[in-house]
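Protein modeling request. Please complete all fields; requests missing the sequence field cannot be processed.
Requester role: graduate student
Desired output: 3D structure, token encoding
Chains: 1
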Amino acid sequence: TRSGDWDGARKLYRWFTPLLHLDVHVKFVQYIKLALQETGLGREWVRPPRLPLAGKERAQVLKIIRDSVACRPSLPRPAKRA
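Delivered output (82 residues):
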């Protein structure tokens, strides 16, 4: 980090890592769309040939998303430039 806050950077990285892993799966589009819906930023709907997530897989992804939202770290606001 520029400010030298390595503990803060590690905390942020540990929080973000499970979400980053959603982006490397073959169904990453469905995972990201589900995250958008859960955070109120979009809809889960996907175009064919993709299918919406279902069952255990959907529940696992929802848990990752909801756990991450629930423990989201607060970040200091950057100083305004003069």
